[in-house]
Amino acid sequence: MATSAAAAASTLPYLGAMDVVSEAELREKGFMGLRKTKLVCTVGPACVGALPALARGGMGVARVNLCHGGRGWHRAVMREVRRLNEEEGFCVSLMVDTEGSQLLVADHGGAASVKAEDGSEWLFTSKRTDESHPFTMHVNFDKFSEDILVGDELVIDGGMATFEVIEKVGNDLRCKCTDPGLLLPRAKLSFWRNGKLVERNFGLPTLSAKDWADIEFGIAEGVDCIALSFVKDANDIKYLKTYLSRKSLEHIKIFAKVESLESLKNLKDIIEASDGVMVARGDLGVQIPLEQIPAIQEAIVDLCRRLNKPVIVASQLLESMVEYPTPTRAEVADVSEAVRQYADAVMLSAESAIGAYPQKALAVLRAASERMESWSREENMQKLLPQHQLAIALPDRISEQICTSAAEMANNLAVDAIFVYTKYGHMASLLSRNRPNPPIFAFTDNANSRKSMNLYWGVIPLQLPLSNNMEDNFNQTIKLMKSKGSVKSGDTVLVVADSDLNRPRAATSVFQSIQVRIVD
């Protein structure tokens, strides 16, 4: 069983209102001004004290990378996020990243970064010593040099520095720097031969013993999502989901991080097995040519939307803001392109975790997202997107068709908002998949479902008691939102409802409806 912290996540008092950020946006900008792209921030030393400011700035998901820091620090961050939700009216989901099995430059024994000069010779070794040695890099895997030949290229962090292997010394490699650059702690290694990645299978599990310990820690602290690193195939996802199911923790969502050549080969199966996907472009760029990244990103985003899985575009979106208070124009264009592709979320990594300007980076991410969404509406680009049938069983096909039709009606009738009443968030996800013009207000009586909908494009999740009487539910929500100044008389709302919110997910019949209501 999960500990009390995890249990508390599903027994919070009914919040009875939307989160304070969405409420403020709605008052300031109206329905069509609500931002639809979700914002994820990686929490690190640079922003721990700024968590309240980041939440006010639009952070919808706080990501904790368990590769860095210790248990005490991770626990403090997670509890602060929960406090913000419970005491200050935010709705921020918690995501943890597993480390996964990967080859890393673990330590160079010097300062935070070391410059590799052109022509300098370096020893890459798995031997560990207590002393630092100049021109030596320690790799955290004994067999890292297996199948590597003299003449191969050793590339650091996708091109930060490049070396040529000039000699094999036992399991070590002596290399000469051919492209100078900075060697950072925990930098990624890849080996190339004749312009192609040297692919090797060391038989390492996707989840190490450390990863399992981290997952148990995350469960105990009530996390909402687990981002699984270096996924090889769908079985990696299925195994973890089965493990969570046995603990009655199906509400914890599993996001597959697409960051390797192996994951690209099994992409469709991985997406179908997961609850969502993170396009980890930094690590992906270590294993594939950089010029292929844009096309691969667009293909992954499109496939995720078609398969109804939320997708996060991550890594190096505003990388220059790690050091500088303003981004490059190319970086803003990069963010805007991810938004134009209808990614569900965009993510800050080092920019918020270790950067000098985490709040400014989030403000840029938010402003760029809002402007691109506005431009899409102005240019009438946000038409109903093509879909293909996902469901097989008739009840599921009915739900799918109702949500597709509802999105089309909402666009054609230019309604102000879509209301959906949902137990587990599935109907909200089907509406989001169509990327309609109006915002989607998803009402649920389940705290875990509310958190899981935090990564659905265009969805504002609210938690409040619901009954099987849809008229009562509608009147209750209208009364609530009127009291907050969120809706007014004359507003047009398209309502999508399941008449039996307590119906099991596997039920053989459905009673769903679409209504268009004008607020009195």
Brief account:
This protein is an alpha/beta fold and 520 residues long. It contains 17 helices and 23 strands.
- The third-level CATH topology of the largest domain is TIM Barrel
Radius of gyration: 24 Å
Biggest beta sheet summary: 8 strands, parallel, barrel
CATH-derived architecture of the largest domain: Alpha-Beta Barrel
Strand order of the largest sheet: 1-2-3-14-15-16-17-18
State the end-to-end CA separation. Answer: 47 Å
How many helical stretches? 17
CATH superfamily of the largest domain: Phosphoenolpyruvate-binding domains
Catalytic activity: pyruvate + ATP = phosphoenolpyruvate + ADP + H(+)
GO molecular function, one term: kinase activity
Pfam family, one: PK_C
Keywords: ATP-binding, Glycolysis, Kinase, Magnesium, Metal-binding, Nucleotide-binding, Pyruvate, Transferase
Structure write-up:
α6 (234-246) runs parallel beside α8 (267-273), α11 packs across α13 (358-378) and α14 packs across α15. The relative contact order is 0.12. It contains 17 helices and 23 strands. It has 3 domains: 37-100 and 205-379, TIM Barrel (Alpha-Beta Barrel), CATH 3.20.20.60; 114-197, M1 Pyruvate Kinase, Domain 3 (Beta Barrel), CATH 2.40.33; 394-519, Pyruvate kinase, C-terminal domain (Pyruvate Kinase, Chain: A, domain 1). The strands form 4 sheets. An 8-stranded parallel beta barrel has the order 1-2-3-14-15-16-17-18, surrounded by 7 helices. A 7-stranded mixed β-barrel has the order 4-7-6-10-9-8-12. The chain has a 5-stranded mixed sheet with strand order 21-20-19-22-23, with helices on both faces. It is elongated, with a radius of gyration of 24 Å. The longest helix has 21 residues, at 358-378. It has 520 residues and is of the alpha/beta class.
